[in-house]
Every structure is written in structure tokens, then in C-alpha cells.
Amino acid sequence: MDEKESNETLKISSPPLANTKVQSVIPKNRSEVLKWNGWGYRDSKFKVTDQGMIRFTGNRYSIGETDLPFFTQWVQQVLNIDLTLRNVPREKFSSTEIPPCRVSTKLLNIFKEMKIDHTIDSSARLLRSHGQTLYDIYSLRYGKCFPRICDLVVWPANHNDVVSIVELVNVHNIVLVPFGGGTNVSGAVSCPANENRCIVSVDTSQMNRLLWLDESNLLVCFEAGVIGQDLERELNKRGYTCGHEPDSYEFSSLGGWVATRASGMKKNVYGNIEDLVIDAKMVTCRGVVEKNSKVPRMSSGPDFQQIVLGSEGTLGIITEVTLKIRPLPDCRVYDSVVFPDFESGVKCMREVAKQRCQPVSIRLMDNTQFRFGQALRPVENTFGNLLDFFKKTYLTHVCGFRLESICVMTLLFEGKRSKVVSHRNCIAKIAVSFGGVTAGERNGERGYMLTFVIAYIRDLALEYRVVAESFETSVSWDKTLSLCDNVKKVVANECNKLNIKYYLISCRVTQTYDSGCCVYFYFGFNWTGLDDPVSTYHHIETIARDTIMASGGSISHHHGVGKLRAHWYEKHMSKTVLSLYSASKKMLDPNNVFANGNLISFPLSKI
């Protein structure tokens, strides 16, 4: 083999590709583009027009600048919302409402000498002291400011900056809280209220370089602050994909994915984050944890680097991550299947998993969520309305389905066109055996894309006296149906006890495995007549989570533990596991610098 032929066989990226700064969709000043007190882009939101119609603004999503009459009717009927009574959110906190910073001039001068960008601006500090929990967003819009926020925000530019920061604060007994995309729903970046030490938020957003791309071995290394959509865009330019697409991927960071053991909608083909990560650097108070190897697998004793995954900022700061990548697929095809009831759909998904023929994405919505999704469709032309009428007539009169019990499975196929066609036929055959009826590409694509829009609904709901949140779990196949039924019943019973008349509880199966699946719940209610809606919601969700655990579910499938679920972590993990984690914490962080309070609460000053 001559030199030219060898270079073509071992295709490795050219030098200019290394160390490429990524131009992020999200600027350093996040509030220029993102809401400070809600989800997503500032120009994208559900709003009520002067004519009393709900409309989605902006052009970033397929339903942008579209009136939604069916959704308007749905929220009025299901949640008894009066769209003439808007609970207007505050525009901002006054300077006296935001906790003052507790940072010394000496420390500020040290960061200045280190040439590490930093600020004590109150808005910047507040923005990096919360995530997206119901408590977070309700407090920002209608409640009091958080009792404790970070005192200083720093923007390291690279791995070495993080090493310097960690060494500095370890000497001066200062707390570090890593901050990535700010999308957590577990209270992970909120500051412990009784922490008296100076708290520094380490915003990793400026650490977003593509460090190298190895096309021969299909590997890439990014800095951990890169945002999901930026990462994927850079790979797509070069003909590759990571394939990790969590619901939050527009705004969440690579480091956050690793720190929470994230999962994405396409995990069936590309894997969860733990399947994608080859190596990850984490800076701790005792040094850097890393494999420093690109081999696909090692049998070299216990893999202690696994402690990086799911560490949730309690052990160190993740700075660089090496991932597996794949060539972009030739084609993408959506599909959907309607089932007579949720049980039939679950059985179909279980069979698909048993045969290990899952497409890139396969998800099942229960009847409540199906109706909710249908309500979000825009008004179509006469032909489209006529087509929908015939579909409904076919399902009810020909197939004998009842509209109050049907559910929908949405599908996404990727790959070579010939294989996609074969794969689609295989799934269709299995679906038919469980009473399923193919519902076409349009419903499948709409269902998939609405995933990115649904998160915006809570902001609208809060303006009209509705509190809502999602929570998820993983469960074995034999307990999936009973867990779903038990959670829905206990939520309904508690709402009745509290005289909550208008509420919604629904679920969907989002990821499948050989032995089980992930179940996602959506719960919300009209809180008219209640004094403290957030506490009431938390009370009901706590009962629901207790039921999940009693029904064979897990604490979390992919959202992580944070502070919100720490109670269940300590309660349901074995004493040996808790002791092992505590020993790791003491070894890697003896001064409790990473004292964000996630997973297990340690004494505030020292362990």
C-alpha cells in the first residue's frame, strides 16, 4: 500500500480542524437570547392574543406565528382556565430584593491577576443560581427571590483555567457550583440557603471548543461547556452526528449530560450518554480524573472514571469529553401507529424491544397526552380538515376504536433508505399484531417536534393559575402498566382530597430496553382557591414519587437526583453504596468545595 492509499484508508482530520472555537447560538450574556424567568428563547412563547386566542410566537419552531384554536378550547375545558384573567409575571427583581454578594476585594483581585473573566453583577449571579424546577420559575415570576444565590460568576476559558480555579478555592475555603446550560429540573445548581462561605458559579459556556476529530476511529473531543445544538451543528457540517438528543438539547451542555447520566430520544441507536463517552476529564481538589485513552474498552481493574458520570457537580468540574460519533444517516422517516388502548401499545413496545428492532426513536403517548397533542395542531385548509374527519371516522367506525381510550406511538427511522423501508415494515407488522393501525408520517413528525415546544407551555400556564411539571422514572416491563395506573390513581385521589377539581395527569413511554422502559409523567392543576400552589404541587408529587418507588420504579431515569430527589437517594440506596460515595467525596473533595448539596447533604464547612 502506497502513502496516498494509506492516507485514504486511515482518514484522520486535518490539523486546522483541531482546537476550533464554536460560535454558540447562546451568547455569554444569556439573557440577550434566553428568558431569565422561564423556558427557552425570548422570542418563542405561548401567549393569548387580544381576541382570546392562544398563539405561539417566533419562527424557530414549526408552530411559530400560528393561532391554536383547538388548544385554546382544550385548556378552557380541561383546566377551566379563564383567559381574560392573566397573572402578570414580574419584569425583574429590584436591587434590594437580590441577596448581596459575599466576595472579598482580595478574591476579585486574584481572579483579575489570573486573567479569568468574572462578574459580581446581580442579574448574572441570579441567572446562574437556578434551573427549571417549578419552584425556580414560580419564585422568579411571582414569589420572593431565592434566599441564597452565588456571590461571583467566573468564566474559565479552558481546562487549565478550571485547574487554577479549583486550586485557588481549595486554599481559601470557597464553594464552587458548576453551571452548564441551566436546564436542570432537580435543583442541582441552586445554592444551599445556609451556606455562609463565598459561593462561586463556574459557568463553562466559554469552554466550547472542538478540540479534535478523529474520522478514522469515529471519535470527537469537545470542551464540556458546548451546548447540544452547537455540538451537533459542528458535527453535521463535517458529515457526522453524536446522536444524543435529550428534550433539552437546544440549551443543555455536554458537561451537564455527563454529570447527570443523561438520556436522549435517539438512544436506541446511538446509546445513552454513558454508552457514548469514551473519556471525560474532571478536575477535583485532588487532581484530574481521566482515562487518557481512546481505546473502545479496557479490562484494567474497576473503572473508577465511572464516578464522573452522575456526579452532579459534587466531586469536581468536567472540562473535556471524548465521544463516539457516527456518519450522518442517508435518510430520516417519521411514522405513527394508533392503538385501541395504552395496554396494547405497551405490549407492542415490549415486543419491539424483545426483538431488539427499535428504530432511532419509539415513544408511546397515553390517551390524555394524545388528546393534548392533537389540541396543539393548527387550523388547516378544508382538505386537511376533511382528511382528519375521514381518519377519525375510519378509526371509530371501521376499526372500532374509542376516542377516549386510543393512544399513539410515534416513530423515527434513520439510516440507509433500503434498510429504513425494511425496518418500518417490520415495526408495522408487530404493531398490527397488537391491534395497531398506521397513522402516517405527519403525525409522527408532529409528535416528535412538539417535544421541543411542550416545555414552553408551563410559562403560559403559570400566567393563568395553573402549576405543572414533569417527572420520570424507569421500570421493568412487567410492572410498567401497574406503575402507570398506580401513579394516576394516587394523584387523582390526592387532588380529590384537596378539592382540586381541574387537573391533568398523563404519561408516555419514551425509551425502551430489553428489561424495561422509561415512563414520563406530566401533572398540572388549576390552583384557584389554594394559598400555596407550589407547596401543594410538591406535596402531591412527593406522594406520586413514593408510589413510583413502591411500584418498582427508580428515583430517576435521566433527570438525575439533585436536591429535589436526594431524600429518595439516601432512603433507597444501600448503606454500602452511600458509604462508598461518601468515601469518594472525602477523598476527592476533603474541604467540601463542591458543596452544592446534590445527592447527599454533607456538613457545610468541611466533611
Automatic annotation (TrEMBL):
Reactions catalysed: a long chain fatty alcohol + a 1-acylglycerone 3-phosphate = a 1-O-alkylglycerone 3-phosphate + a long-chain fatty acid + H(+)
Amino acids binding FAD: 260-263, 312-318
Main location per the UniProt record: other
Matching Gene3D superfamilies: 3.30.160.650, 3.30.300.330, 3.30.465.10, 3.30.70.3450, Uridine Diphospho-n-acetylenolpyruvylglucosamine Reductase, domain 2, Vanillyl-alcohol Oxidase, Chain A, domain 4
Active site location: 520 (proton donor/acceptor)
Domain FAD-binding PCMH-type: 146-328
UniProt cross-references to PROSITE patterns, sorted A to Z: FAD_PCMH (PS51387)
GO biological process, one term: lipid biosynthetic process
GO molecular-function terms, A-Z: alkylglycerone-phosphate synthase activity; FAD binding
Enzyme Commission code(s) on record: 2.5.1.26
Record bears the keyword Cell division: no
SUPFAM superfamilies, A to Z: FAD-binding/transporter-associated domain-like, FAD-linked oxidases, C-terminal domain
Compartment(s): Peroxisome
Pfam families hit by this protein: FAD-oxidase_C (PF02913), FAD_binding_4 (PF01565)
Cellular component aspect of the GO annotation: peroxisome
Keyword annotations: FAD, Flavoprotein, Lipid biosynthesis, Lipid metabolism, Peroxisome, Transferase
Annotated site (Important for enzyme activity): 363
Record bears the keyword NAD: no
Binding residues annotated for substrate, in chain numbering: 458
Quaternary state and interactors: Homodimer.
Family: Belongs to the FAD-binding oxidoreductase/transferase type 4 family.
Function: Catalyzes the exchange of an acyl for a long-chain alkyl group and the formation of the ether bond in the biosynthesis of ether phospholipids.
Record protein name field: Alkylglycerone-phosphate synthase
